[in-house]
Amino acid sequence: MNYHKNKIKTMKWVLVIGFLLMALKFLAFYLTHSNAILTDAIESIVNVLAGSFALYSLYFASKPKDEDHPYGHGKIEFFSTGVEGGMITLAGIVMVLKGISAFFYPNNIDNLTIGILISFFSGLVNFILAKILIKKGTLLNSSALVADGKHLLTDTWSSIGLIVGLILIYFTNIFFIDYIITIGLGLFIIYTGFQLLKESVFNLLDKADYIKIKHLISILNSNRKPSWIDIHNLRVVKYGSVVHVDCHMTLPWYYTLEEAHREVDALDQLAKVEFDNEIEFFIHSDPCLPLSCKICEINSCKERNFEFVKKLEWKMENVLPDSKHSFSE
């Protein structure tokens, strides 16, 4: 589909630019012998490796459903986020160890001006790429693109800290500042990697996406029909860029199978129009109960057992449980 191609094309360009920036940073280290610049270059290796795996995950996620993967292959994007988080964490640990060892085995720093200019340029490019990736990843509901964007944004803040440190060294000639920067950047990168790892685990374990659930409930409340007596047992699960929604819909008990199917299909089409990404709705229709009359807005219903009392607004607390609504709630 087009949105799969869009994600893959974006990731290809990011990977090419990341490889060029990596080469540029190693050139800066060769010219300056700065440990802080070396740690920045090591992180660029992680950028390229993580980006390569993210690109593969996007290719894999774009494969159509098959007998072994009836819900598609999208969850590999969450796994890709975890791999990237693990690589970032490992790179951060290496940076911290390198910074500590530099106190015992110091080295001279040369050509600071060149190092500052290269660091500024690479930080600016990473910032632009990060904003593009996060924006596109959010628009296309791609965990892999968003994760890579957050990683590059971290790289940007690292570059800012690096530039400030190099400027201080330039004016003070206090070279151990380089080692302190290395350790500080390493700790910051470890924190970022851990956050991505945590996000990956939560997504793989199908942690409830309350933001999407609230958005969906808001849409249903704004567009509900009188025959949609209630919605309950609603769940939203993400498989990469594909959103799967399960719910039970209570309809008048006297509806024919064809009428019930028409209402289910209307709800399904509403969700597909409102969500700008691929979505699958699995709706189970339930017959109404006598107590449902108190919240049922069908004025022409001839099977009423109780008078209509008031419209029940759908909220998180009454849509998620697996129980039909009534006025007593």
User: For this structure, what is the CATH class of the largest domain?
Assistant: Mainly Alpha
In the CATH hierarchy, the architecture of the largest domain is Up-down Bundle
Order of strands across the main sheet:
1-2-3
**How many H/I helices?**
9
What's the gyration radius in Å?
A: 27 Å
How many domains comprise the coordinates? 2
- Give the CATH topology of the largest domain: Alpha-lytic protease prodomain-like
Number of strands: 3
Q: Regions with pLDDT < 50 over 5+ consecutive residues?
A: none
Classification by helices and strands: mainly alpha
Full CATH superfamily name of the largest domain: Cation efflux protein transmembrane domain
- C-alpha geometry: elongated
Average per-residue pLDDT, rounded, comes to 78
- Proportion of β residues? 5-15%
Helix content: 55-70%
User: How many strands, which pairing sense, and closed or not: the largest β-sheet?
Assistant: 3 strands, mixed
Straight-line distance between termini: 44 Å
Structure description:
With 329 residues, this protein is mainly alpha-helical. It has 2 domains: 2-204, Alpha-lytic protease prodomain-like (Up-down Bundle), CATH 1.20.1510.10; 210-319, Cation efflux protein, cytoplasmic domain (Alpha-Beta Plaits, 2-Layer Sandwich), CATH 3.30.70. It is 64% helix and 9% strand. The chain is built from 9 helices and 3 strands, in the order αααααααββαβα. The protein has a 3-stranded mixed β-sheet. Helix 8 (257-274) links the parallel strand 2 and strand 3 (279-287). The two termini are 44 Å apart. The mean pLDDT is 78.
